[in-house]
Amino acid sequence: MDRTGRLERRQRDRGIRADEPSRNDEKSNSHPYVLIALGLSFVGFGASVGLTAGEIVPFFVFMFPASVLLALGLSRLEQQRRKAVSPRVSRERELLSAIRNNAGSITPAEAAMETSLTVGEADKMLSELAAGGHLQVESSAGMLFYRLPGRRAPELENRRI
Predict the structure, then answer these.
(1) Which among 9, 96, 142, 161 has most CB atoms closer than 10 A?
(2) Crossing angle of helices 119-131/87-101, nearest 10°?
(3) pLDDT tens digits for 10-38?
(4) Which residue, among 106, 111, 105, has the nearest Cα to 150 in the 3D structure?
(5) Which residue would you say has higher pLDDT here, 6 or 36?
(6) What is the pLDDT of residue 18?
(7) CA–CA separation, 68 vs 56, rounded Å?
(8) Where are the domains of the chain?
(9) Which option is the CATH number for 87-158: 1.10.10.60, 3.30.590.20, 3.10.20.30, 1.10.10.10?
């Protein structure tokens, strides 16, 4: 069994779901604004000490921790922003990208092969998108094809699976 399989089994045994953030994740990404504020404080303190002393050396001494704190705070802020996109939206984006990459039309089975979705999940999402008017449904040789509106899909005529 590979490493990820063991990790998933361990998480399942502990009752942790894979899509839930762990306590360590929450800890490591907590309070990016505090880190940014501390970094700016170091810059300000270094500037005031440098101006008071009349030398520029103290300013550079405070710039190293300031730059580290600012970089760390901005990095964690970006991580939080990325996590703000819900899994539903990212999976929908993945599905729509697969449709686009497949000449604008796709079947649920093709969607499952080209994304992380199962056939059932792909079928449900495609049906929901079609019901919302975001996709058009076409039938050919007893199979349903979902395509982006406004895209011509001449390959539907000659398509064999």
Answers:
(1) 96
(2) 90
(3) 656 665 444 445 444 455 556 889 999 99
(4) 105
(5) 36
(6) 45
(7) 19
(8) 3-83, 87-158
(9) 1.10.10.10
Asked if 50 and 56 touch (Cβ cutoff 8 Å), the reply is yes
Q: Which two tokens stand for residue 93?
A: 């984006």
Contacts of 16 (CB under 8 A, 6+ apart): 22
Contact assessment for residue 136 and residue 130, using Cβ atoms and an 8 Å cutoff: yes
Determine the Cα angle at 85 with ends 80 and 91, to 5°.
140
Mean pLDDT, the chain, rounded, equals 78
Rounded distance, CA 10 to CA 135, Å?
40
Summarize pLDDT for 41-68 with one digit per residue, the tens. 999 988 888 888 888 887 888 899 999 9
Question: Is pTM, for the whole model, over 0.85?
Answer: no
Q: How far apart are CA 4 and CA 154, in angstroms?
A: 42
